[in-house]
Amino acid sequence: MLAGQRYRIELTEEQEASCIAFGAICRAVWNTALDQRRQYVDRYTRGRDGQFCGYHLQARELAEAKTEETWLRAAPSHILQQTLKDLDRACREHGTFNVRFRAKARWNPSFRFPAGNLITVEKLNRRWGRAKLPKLGWVRFRMSRPISGQIRSATVSCKSGQWFVSFLVEDGQLTPQQHARPDSAVGVDRGVKVAATTSDGTFHDREFTTEGEKTRYLKLQKKLARQEKGSANRSTTLGSMGRISSRAVDRRTDFCAYTANRLARDHATVVLEDLNTKGMTASAKGTAAHPGKRVAQKAGLNRAILDKGWHRLELALTNVARYTGTRIVKVNPAYTSQTCYPCGHVDSESRKSQATFECTACGHRDHADVNAAKNIFRAAGHAVPACGDLGVTWSAKQEPEGTREGVPLQLALPLVGIPRL
Protein backbone atom coordinates (compact mmCIF):
# COMPACT_ATOMS: atom_id res chain seq x y z
CA MET A 1 0.00 0.00 0.00
CA LEU A 2 1.00 3.63 -0.40
CA ALA A 3 2.57 5.41 2.57
CA GLY A 4 4.19 8.81 3.11
CA GLN A 5 7.58 9.31 4.77
CA ARG A 6 8.84 12.81 5.57
CA TYR A 7 12.46 13.88 6.15
CA ARG A 8 14.16 17.15 7.01
CA ILE A 9 16.45 18.38 4.23
CA GLU A 10 19.42 20.73 4.17
CA LEU A 11 19.55 22.97 1.11
CA THR A 12 22.36 25.08 -0.21
CA GLU A 13 21.69 28.77 -0.77
CA GLU A 14 21.24 28.15 -4.48
CA GLN A 15 18.86 25.23 -3.91
CA GLU A 16 16.81 27.19 -1.39
CA ALA A 17 16.46 30.09 -3.82
CA SER A 18 15.30 27.64 -6.50
CA CYS A 19 12.76 26.05 -4.14
CA ILE A 20 11.36 29.47 -3.22
CA ALA A 21 11.06 30.32 -6.92
CA PHE A 22 9.39 26.99 -7.72
CA GLY A 23 6.89 27.52 -4.92
CA ALA A 24 6.09 31.05 -6.09
CA ILE A 25 5.52 29.87 -9.67
CA CYS A 26 3.25 27.04 -8.50
CA ARG A 27 1.27 29.54 -6.40
CA ALA A 28 0.86 31.83 -9.43
CA VAL A 29 -0.28 28.92 -11.61
CA TRP A 30 -2.78 27.81 -8.96
CA ASN A 31 -4.28 31.29 -8.57
CA THR A 32 -4.48 31.91 -12.32
CA ALA A 33 -6.08 28.54 -13.02
CA LEU A 34 -8.56 28.96 -10.16
CA ASP A 35 -9.54 32.39 -11.45
CA GLN A 36 -10.16 30.90 -14.91
CA ARG A 37 -12.38 28.20 -13.44
CA ARG A 38 -14.41 30.73 -11.46
CA GLN A 39 -14.89 32.91 -14.52
CA TYR A 40 -16.10 29.89 -16.49
CA VAL A 41 -18.58 28.88 -13.77
CA ASP A 42 -19.87 32.45 -13.63
CA ARG A 43 -20.35 32.57 -17.42
CA TYR A 44 -22.03 29.15 -17.38
CA THR A 45 -24.49 30.15 -14.66
CA ARG A 46 -25.36 33.31 -16.61
CA GLY A 47 -26.11 31.31 -19.76
CA ARG A 48 -23.17 32.57 -21.79
CA ASP A 49 -21.19 30.43 -24.18
CA GLY A 50 -17.72 29.33 -23.21
CA GLN A 51 -15.32 26.42 -23.56
CA PHE A 52 -15.22 24.08 -20.56
CA CYS A 53 -12.30 25.01 -18.32
CA GLY A 54 -10.78 21.76 -17.05
CA TYR A 55 -7.37 20.25 -16.48
CA HIS A 56 -6.64 19.30 -20.09
CA LEU A 57 -7.45 22.77 -21.44
CA GLN A 58 -5.41 24.48 -18.76
CA ALA A 59 -2.48 22.08 -19.29
CA ARG A 60 -2.40 22.98 -22.98
CA GLU A 61 -2.57 26.69 -22.16
CA LEU A 62 0.24 26.26 -19.63
CA ALA A 63 2.45 24.59 -22.26
CA GLU A 64 1.80 27.49 -24.63
CA ALA A 65 2.48 30.05 -21.92
CA LYS A 66 5.86 28.48 -21.09
CA THR A 67 7.03 29.23 -24.63
CA GLU A 68 6.17 32.92 -24.21
CA GLU A 69 6.71 33.66 -20.52
CA THR A 70 10.34 33.16 -19.51
CA TRP A 71 9.64 33.14 -15.76
CA LEU A 72 7.54 29.98 -16.13
CA ARG A 73 10.49 28.10 -17.63
CA ALA A 74 12.40 28.23 -14.34
CA ALA A 75 10.17 25.53 -12.83
CA PRO A 76 9.96 21.94 -14.12
CA SER A 77 6.89 21.32 -16.27
CA HIS A 78 5.67 18.30 -14.30
CA ILE A 79 5.40 20.16 -10.98
CA LEU A 80 3.25 22.82 -12.68
CA GLN A 81 1.07 20.12 -14.25
CA GLN A 82 0.78 18.48 -10.84
CA THR A 83 -0.43 21.81 -9.44
CA LEU A 84 -3.20 21.86 -12.05
CA LYS A 85 -4.12 18.26 -11.17
CA ASP A 86 -4.33 19.14 -7.47
CA LEU A 87 -6.55 22.10 -8.31
CA ASP A 88 -8.78 19.96 -10.51
CA ARG A 89 -9.25 17.39 -7.73
CA ALA A 90 -9.94 20.13 -5.16
CA CYS A 91 -12.59 21.74 -7.38
CA ARG A 92 -14.32 18.42 -8.02
CA GLU A 93 -14.35 17.46 -4.34
CA HIS A 94 -15.19 20.81 -2.73
CA GLY A 95 -16.59 23.04 -5.47
CA THR A 96 -14.82 25.77 -7.42
CA PHE A 97 -15.91 28.65 -5.21
CA ASN A 98 -15.00 26.76 -2.02
CA VAL A 99 -11.35 26.43 -3.07
CA ARG A 100 -9.21 29.29 -1.81
CA PHE A 101 -6.59 31.34 -3.56
CA ARG A 102 -3.06 30.92 -2.23
CA ALA A 103 -2.07 34.20 -0.62
CA LYS A 104 1.63 34.94 -0.42
CA ALA A 105 1.49 35.82 3.28
CA ARG A 106 -0.47 32.73 4.37
CA TRP A 107 0.81 29.98 2.09
CA ASN A 108 3.92 27.88 2.72
CA PRO A 109 5.85 26.99 -0.47
CA SER A 110 5.36 23.39 -1.62
CA PHE A 111 5.54 21.48 -4.88
CA ARG A 112 5.50 17.83 -5.95
CA PHE A 113 7.71 15.82 -8.30
CA PRO A 114 5.25 13.16 -9.57
CA ALA A 115 7.72 11.02 -11.52
CA GLY A 116 9.25 8.56 -9.08
CA ASN A 117 11.48 7.04 -11.74
CA LEU A 118 13.36 10.36 -11.98
CA ILE A 119 14.18 10.39 -8.26
CA THR A 120 17.32 8.67 -6.99
CA VAL A 121 18.01 8.12 -3.28
CA GLU A 122 21.34 7.14 -1.77
CA LYS A 123 22.38 6.52 1.85
CA LEU A 124 25.50 8.43 2.84
CA ASN A 125 25.93 7.16 6.40
CA ARG A 126 23.90 6.17 9.45
CA ARG A 127 22.39 9.65 9.85
CA TRP A 128 22.28 11.20 6.39
CA GLY A 129 21.15 10.37 2.89
CA ARG A 130 20.71 12.29 -0.32
CA ALA A 131 18.11 12.42 -3.06
CA LYS A 132 18.50 13.59 -6.64
CA LEU A 133 15.53 15.78 -7.61
CA PRO A 134 14.91 17.31 -11.07
CA LYS A 135 16.46 20.79 -11.47
CA LEU A 136 17.64 20.73 -7.85
CA GLY A 137 20.34 18.09 -8.05
CA TRP A 138 21.50 16.16 -5.01
CA VAL A 139 19.74 17.23 -1.82
CA ARG A 140 20.94 16.05 1.60
CA PHE A 141 18.30 14.89 4.07
CA ARG A 142 18.31 13.59 7.63
CA MET A 143 17.61 9.87 7.27
CA SER A 144 15.68 9.36 10.51
CA ARG A 145 14.30 6.06 9.19
CA PRO A 146 14.98 3.93 6.10
CA ILE A 147 12.84 4.35 3.00
CA SER A 148 10.73 1.21 3.01
CA GLY A 149 9.59 0.82 -0.57
CA GLN A 150 9.58 2.03 -4.14
CA ILE A 151 9.32 5.81 -4.48
CA ARG A 152 6.29 7.04 -6.41
CA SER A 153 6.65 10.81 -5.91
CA ALA A 154 8.39 13.42 -3.76
CA THR A 155 6.94 16.60 -2.27
CA VAL A 156 9.17 19.46 -1.12
CA SER A 157 7.64 21.84 1.42
CA CYS A 158 8.65 24.61 3.80
CA LYS A 159 7.42 24.95 7.37
CA SER A 160 8.56 27.73 9.71
CA GLY A 161 11.72 28.27 7.68
CA GLN A 162 12.68 24.57 7.61
CA TRP A 163 12.48 22.53 4.41
CA PHE A 164 11.22 18.94 4.20
CA VAL A 165 10.86 16.27 1.55
CA SER A 166 8.02 13.72 1.70
CA PHE A 167 8.37 10.51 -0.30
CA LEU A 168 5.26 8.60 -1.35
CA VAL A 169 6.37 4.97 -1.36
CA GLU A 170 4.81 1.63 -2.20
CA ASP A 171 5.76 -0.46 0.82
CA GLY A 172 4.38 -3.75 -0.53
CA GLN A 173 2.20 -4.46 2.53
CA LEU A 174 -1.43 -5.60 2.45
CA THR A 175 -4.28 -5.04 4.89
CA PRO A 176 -4.68 -8.17 7.08
CA GLN A 177 -7.81 -10.21 6.54
CA GLN A 178 -8.31 -10.39 10.30
CA HIS A 179 -7.07 -8.42 13.28
CA ALA A 180 -4.65 -10.08 15.68
CA ARG A 181 -7.31 -9.73 18.40
CA PRO A 182 -10.56 -10.18 16.47
CA ASP A 183 -12.86 -10.04 19.53
CA SER A 184 -11.52 -6.80 20.97
CA ALA A 185 -13.34 -3.48 20.61
CA VAL A 186 -13.34 -0.07 22.26
CA GLY A 187 -15.29 3.18 22.23
CA VAL A 188 -13.47 6.52 22.14
CA ASP A 189 -14.83 9.84 23.40
CA ARG A 190 -13.02 12.98 22.27
CA GLY A 191 -13.14 15.99 24.59
CA VAL A 192 -11.75 19.47 25.18
CA LYS A 193 -10.15 18.65 28.56
CA VAL A 194 -8.95 15.12 27.78
CA ALA A 195 -8.13 14.50 24.14
CA ALA A 196 -9.38 10.90 24.04
CA THR A 197 -11.05 8.69 26.66
CA THR A 198 -11.75 5.02 26.00
CA SER A 199 -14.62 2.89 27.29
CA ASP A 200 -12.22 0.84 29.43
CA GLY A 201 -11.37 3.93 31.48
CA THR A 202 -8.06 4.91 29.86
CA PHE A 203 -7.28 8.61 29.37
CA HIS A 204 -5.06 9.75 26.50
CA ASP A 205 -3.86 13.34 26.73
CA ARG A 206 -0.83 15.60 26.88
CA GLU A 207 0.05 19.30 26.82
CA PHE A 208 1.06 20.52 23.39
CA THR A 209 2.25 23.99 24.46
CA THR A 210 4.29 24.79 27.57
CA GLU A 211 3.48 27.72 29.85
CA GLY A 212 6.63 29.47 28.72
CA GLU A 213 5.64 29.13 25.08
CA LYS A 214 2.16 30.50 25.82
CA THR A 215 3.65 33.54 27.56
CA ARG A 216 6.16 34.09 24.76
CA TYR A 217 3.48 33.76 22.09
CA LEU A 218 1.22 36.30 23.84
CA LYS A 219 4.08 38.81 24.02
CA LEU A 220 4.79 38.28 20.32
CA GLN A 221 1.11 38.88 19.50
CA LYS A 222 1.18 42.21 21.35
CA LYS A 223 4.42 43.11 19.61
CA LEU A 224 2.92 42.20 16.23
CA ALA A 225 -0.06 44.51 16.79
CA ARG A 226 2.30 47.50 17.11
CA GLN A 227 4.34 46.75 13.99
CA GLU A 228 3.69 48.08 10.51
CA LYS A 229 2.41 45.66 7.93
CA GLY A 230 5.01 44.67 5.36
CA SER A 231 7.97 45.68 7.54
CA ALA A 232 11.02 43.49 8.14
CA ASN A 233 10.45 43.50 11.91
CA ARG A 234 6.91 42.22 11.40
CA SER A 235 8.22 39.35 9.27
CA THR A 236 10.71 38.46 12.00
CA THR A 237 7.95 38.43 14.61
CA LEU A 238 5.73 36.25 12.42
CA GLY A 239 8.61 33.83 11.99
CA SER A 240 9.07 33.55 15.76
CA MET A 241 5.35 32.94 16.24
CA GLY A 242 5.40 30.33 13.50
CA ARG A 243 8.22 28.41 15.17
CA ILE A 244 6.28 28.23 18.44
CA SER A 245 3.14 27.08 16.63
CA SER A 246 5.03 24.48 14.61
CA ARG A 247 6.41 22.88 17.78
CA ALA A 248 2.86 22.53 19.12
CA VAL A 249 1.71 21.05 15.81
CA ASP A 250 4.57 18.53 15.84
CA ARG A 251 3.69 17.43 19.38
CA ARG A 252 0.02 17.10 18.48
CA THR A 253 0.87 15.05 15.39
CA ASP A 254 3.13 12.77 17.42
CA PHE A 255 0.46 12.32 20.10
CA CYS A 256 -2.26 11.45 17.59
CA ALA A 257 -0.02 8.99 15.76
CA TYR A 258 1.06 7.31 19.01
CA THR A 259 -2.50 7.09 20.37
CA ALA A 260 -3.92 5.82 17.09
CA ASN A 261 -1.21 3.18 16.86
CA ARG A 262 -2.02 1.85 20.35
CA LEU A 263 -5.77 1.84 19.77
CA ALA A 264 -5.56 0.08 16.40
CA ARG A 265 -2.93 -2.39 17.59
CA ASP A 266 -4.98 -3.52 20.61
CA HIS A 267 -8.53 -3.42 19.20
CA ALA A 268 -10.17 -4.92 16.14
CA THR A 269 -12.99 -2.34 16.27
CA VAL A 270 -12.68 1.31 17.28
CA VAL A 271 -15.94 3.24 17.69
CA LEU A 272 -15.91 7.04 17.26
CA GLU A 273 -18.53 9.75 17.23
CA ASP A 274 -19.36 11.07 13.78
CA LEU A 275 -18.24 14.65 14.45
CA ASN A 276 -18.25 17.45 11.89
CA THR A 277 -15.18 19.18 13.30
CA LYS A 278 -15.08 21.82 10.58
CA GLY A 279 -18.66 22.86 11.26
CA MET A 280 -18.22 22.71 15.03
CA THR A 281 -15.26 25.10 14.90
CA ALA A 282 -16.89 27.66 12.59
CA SER A 283 -16.86 31.26 13.79
CA ALA A 284 -19.92 32.69 15.54
CA LYS A 285 -19.37 36.28 14.37
CA GLY A 286 -22.24 36.19 11.89
CA THR A 287 -22.83 39.18 9.62
CA ALA A 288 -23.34 42.90 10.09
CA ALA A 289 -27.09 42.47 9.71
CA HIS A 290 -27.22 39.41 11.96
CA PRO A 291 -24.31 39.53 14.43
CA GLY A 292 -23.51 36.41 16.38
CA LYS A 293 -23.88 35.87 20.11
CA ARG A 294 -21.19 34.90 22.61
CA VAL A 295 -18.50 35.21 19.97
CA ALA A 296 -15.62 35.22 22.46
CA GLN A 297 -16.88 32.10 24.24
CA LYS A 298 -17.34 30.29 20.92
CA ALA A 299 -13.84 31.30 19.84
CA GLY A 300 -12.43 29.81 23.05
CA LEU A 301 -14.32 26.57 22.45
CA ASN A 302 -13.05 26.44 18.87
CA ARG A 303 -9.45 26.82 20.06
CA ALA A 304 -9.93 24.05 22.63
CA ILE A 305 -11.36 21.65 20.02
CA LEU A 306 -8.63 22.37 17.51
CA ASP A 307 -5.93 22.14 20.17
CA LYS A 308 -6.92 18.55 21.02
CA GLY A 309 -6.69 17.44 17.38
CA TRP A 310 -10.02 15.61 17.04
CA HIS A 311 -9.89 15.30 13.25
CA ARG A 312 -6.17 14.57 13.21
CA LEU A 313 -6.71 11.61 15.55
CA GLU A 314 -9.46 10.28 13.30
CA LEU A 315 -7.19 10.51 10.25
CA ALA A 316 -4.35 8.80 12.12
CA LEU A 317 -6.67 5.96 13.13
CA THR A 318 -7.88 5.50 9.56
CA ASN A 319 -4.29 5.41 8.34
CA VAL A 320 -2.93 2.89 10.83
CA ALA A 321 -6.05 0.70 10.49
CA ARG A 322 -4.82 -0.28 7.02
CA TYR A 323 -1.91 -2.14 8.62
CA THR A 324 -3.78 -3.80 11.49
CA GLY A 325 -7.13 -4.63 9.87
CA THR A 326 -9.01 -2.54 12.45
CA ARG A 327 -12.55 -1.42 11.65
CA ILE A 328 -13.35 2.24 12.31
CA VAL A 329 -17.04 2.70 13.15
CA LYS A 330 -18.77 6.08 13.43
CA VAL A 331 -21.96 6.53 15.42
CA ASN A 332 -24.46 9.31 16.02
CA PRO A 333 -23.02 11.60 18.73
CA ALA A 334 -26.44 12.80 19.97
CA TYR A 335 -26.96 12.50 23.75
CA THR A 336 -23.88 10.35 24.37
CA SER A 337 -22.74 12.69 27.15
CA GLN A 338 -26.20 13.00 28.74
CA THR A 339 -27.18 9.31 28.79
CA CYS A 340 -26.64 7.11 31.82
CA TYR A 341 -24.90 3.95 30.65
CA PRO A 342 -26.44 1.42 33.10
CA CYS A 343 -30.09 2.56 32.96
CA GLY A 344 -30.22 4.57 29.71
CA HIS A 345 -31.86 7.63 31.28
CA VAL A 346 -31.25 10.83 29.26
CA ASP A 347 -30.99 14.06 31.24
CA SER A 348 -28.69 17.04 30.80
CA GLU A 349 -28.76 17.58 34.57
CA SER A 350 -26.92 14.30 35.05
CA ARG A 351 -23.78 15.97 33.75
CA LYS A 352 -22.83 17.73 36.99
CA SER A 353 -19.54 19.11 35.67
CA GLN A 354 -16.98 18.51 32.99
CA ALA A 355 -15.66 15.41 34.76
CA THR A 356 -18.58 14.26 36.92
CA PHE A 357 -21.63 12.29 35.81
CA GLU A 358 -24.35 11.37 38.31
CA CYS A 359 -27.60 9.94 36.94
CA THR A 360 -30.71 11.74 38.21
CA ALA A 361 -32.71 8.51 37.85
CA CYS A 362 -30.62 5.68 39.27
CA GLY A 363 -27.84 7.59 41.02
CA HIS A 364 -25.04 5.96 39.00
CA ARG A 365 -21.75 7.89 39.30
CA ASP A 366 -18.88 7.77 36.83
CA HIS A 367 -16.38 9.96 35.09
CA ALA A 368 -18.34 11.88 32.46
CA ASP A 369 -15.95 11.08 29.63
CA VAL A 370 -15.81 7.36 30.52
CA ASN A 371 -19.60 7.21 30.65
CA ALA A 372 -19.80 8.89 27.23
CA ALA A 373 -17.21 6.48 25.79
CA LYS A 374 -19.28 3.53 27.03
CA ASN A 375 -22.40 4.97 25.37
CA ILE A 376 -20.46 5.42 22.14
CA PHE A 377 -19.29 1.83 22.40
CA ARG A 378 -22.81 0.53 22.99
CA ALA A 379 -24.22 2.60 20.10
CA ALA A 380 -22.23 0.41 17.70
CA GLY A 381 -23.88 -2.75 19.07
CA HIS A 382 -21.37 -3.57 21.80
CA ALA A 383 -21.62 -3.63 25.58
CA VAL A 384 -19.13 -3.02 28.38
CA PRO A 385 -19.65 -5.71 31.07
CA ALA A 386 -19.67 -4.65 34.69
CA CYS A 387 -16.53 -6.70 35.37
CA GLY A 388 -14.60 -4.28 33.16
CA ASP A 389 -13.66 -6.63 30.32
CA LEU A 390 -14.67 -5.57 26.86
CA GLY A 391 -17.40 -7.70 25.43
CA VAL A 392 -18.76 -7.96 21.90
CA THR A 393 -22.26 -9.09 22.81
CA TRP A 394 -24.98 -7.69 25.02
CA SER A 395 -25.01 -9.13 28.54
CA ALA A 396 -28.63 -9.57 29.67
CA LYS A 397 -27.60 -10.17 33.28
CA GLN A 398 -25.53 -7.01 33.63
CA GLU A 399 -27.58 -4.76 31.31
CA PRO A 400 -31.32 -5.09 32.13
CA GLU A 401 -33.65 -4.77 29.20
CA GLY A 402 -36.33 -2.13 28.86
CA THR A 403 -34.61 0.55 30.97
CA ARG A 404 -33.36 2.77 28.17
CA GLU A 405 -35.16 6.08 27.95
CA GLY A 406 -35.01 9.10 25.70
CA VAL A 407 -33.48 9.09 22.26
CA PRO A 408 -31.71 5.79 21.47
CA LEU A 409 -28.15 5.82 20.19
CA GLN A 410 -28.05 4.40 16.69
CA LEU A 411 -25.38 3.66 14.19
CA ALA A 412 -25.28 6.70 11.92
CA LEU A 413 -22.91 5.53 9.19
CA PRO A 414 -21.66 2.20 7.87
CA LEU A 415 -18.18 0.97 8.60
CA VAL A 416 -15.54 3.32 7.30
CA GLY A 417 -13.86 1.91 4.23
CA ILE A 418 -10.92 -0.28 5.22
CA PRO A 419 -10.10 -2.25 2.07
CA ARG A 420 -9.89 -6.00 2.39
CA LEU A 421 -7.20 -6.96 -0.10
TrEMBL record:
Residues 1-42 form the Transposase putative helix-turn-helix domain. Residues 176-282 form the Probable transposase IS891/IS1136/IS1341 domain. GO terms for biological process: DNA recombination; transposition. Keywords: DNA recombination, DNA-binding, Metal-binding, Transposition, Zinc. Signal peptide: none annotated. The keyword DNA-binding applies. GO terms for molecular function: DNA binding; metal ion binding. Pfam families: Cas12f1-like_TNB, HTH_OrfB_IS605, OrfB_IS605. The keyword DNA-binding applies. Residues 310-376 form the Cas12f1-like TNB domain. InterPro entries: Cas12f1-like_TNB, Transposase, Transposase_put_HTH. NCBIfam families: guided_TnpB (NF040570). In the C-terminal section; belongs to the transposase 35 family. This is Putative transposase. It comes from Nocardiopsis metallicus.
